[in-house]
Amino acid sequence: MGNASVMAIPPLGSHELGTEAIPSDHYSSQAFFEQEKENIFKKTWLMVGRESDVAEHGDYITYFIDALEVSIIITRDKHGQVNAFYNACTHRGAHVLTEPCGKAKFMTCGFHGWVFDAEGQLADVPGEDLFGDFDKSKLGLKPVSVDVWGGFVFINLDPKPSVPLKEYLQPLNESFDKYLGNKDWTWSYGWRSTFNANWKLLVDAQIEGYHVDQTHRNTIAGAIPGTYAPADVYPDSIGVPARVCAYRPEEMMGIQTDVALLSAKHGATSLYTKSENEFSADDGAGVLNDDHPLWIFDAYLLFPNVVLFIQKGQILVQRTLPISPDKCLWEVDFFHTGEIENFGQLFNSEQGRIQIRDVLTEDLYTAEGIQMNFNAGIIKEIHINRQEIPIRAYYHRLMSAMKGTGE
Ligand code: FES
Ligand SMILES: [Fe+2]
């Protein structure tokens, strides 16, 4: 551990991506939204869950992309392979599975009882001799491209993705894959909600530090002053346009409640102050910046719709999914390592959960008002400063993805 007073906070972003105002119509235009569905949500890698959600043969989750009216089955077969299929029975098109998760080594369609195995093969047809010329081997579930990285399952609706997932996620390298894929990560808690806002606005809200001093003036502004939240952009990356980082000030400023200070003695989930009792998944070398005494977390934007926060002992995944140009589904999930072993750690966990609930509420409440002003045509462009550079990088990536090449 170095001396806090001599460890510099990295500088804020530059203007390397330009300074011009960004038009706002990509948040509100129906025509743009239709193109996003085709060129982004049918072409890029989408995070759909954790590999541990389908830990054993027959475990499944279903994933619904509202804007596309597409439901996907993710399951694990008897060989241990994770597979993905359109949730579409090849008999007459019903959803084969109707629950968000479950276990079914054989998936039975609820309409007429066609049965599919976890490799998608049509295994049984009631009254098969009622059909005429019939080849079951040609009537398996339609496959969807799927891969696993960092313990997360990603799908791609492009049957032949233009870029493999591992390459798509560069500069997140094998160290990230290993660290995030550690089996010790356990789901802690999460929330989901719909917002009357474009799906990208909920991403924008999490990828810059400029808002912290004002938005979080009643909570964490003293713990992460805006100038302690620099950013990096990765113009050559296909799937990771930018990250924002968070550091503590040398001297805590602003609000530190007695409850938060007490909580910090017992675990890592409080952002308010340096914890005295942090735990971590093994081998965070090259992932965690924890040799910097003031570092709190890095948050990576995974194009198109994920913000992945990596903190010592905790990861946070925010995902948004489009419903319409001005409506989206927002989900957030927290994962921790280690078991809660005593009341102090339980207290820390609960305090962290309540605190982050308040912080997220502060982060997201602006989105619906912004959307109204875009929809009404009152605000036609937005202005982005150096500290908000991830938003400009996100916009650049969006516009290149809209060419529809998958890159
Ligand atoms: S639609 Fe599935 S068995 Fe008929
Ligand atoms: Fe925030």
From TrEMBL:
InterPro entries: Rieske_2Fe-2S, Rieske_2Fe-2S_sf, Ring_hydroxy_dOase_asu_C_dom, Rng_hydr_dOase-A. Keywords: 2Fe-2S, Dioxygenase, Iron, Iron-sulfur, Metal-binding, Oxidoreductase. The keyword Ion transport does not apply. It holds the Pfam family Ring_hydroxyl_A. The keyword Glycosyltransferase does not apply. Residues 46-155 form the Rieske domain. One of its GO terms (molecular function) is iron ion binding. Signal peptide: none annotated. Its cofactor is Fe cation. PANTHER family: CHOLINE MONOOXYGENASE, CHLOROPLASTIC (PTHR43756:SF5). This is Phenylpropionate dioxygenase and related ring-hydroxylating dioxygenases, large terminal subunit. It comes from Cycloclasticus zancles 78-ME.
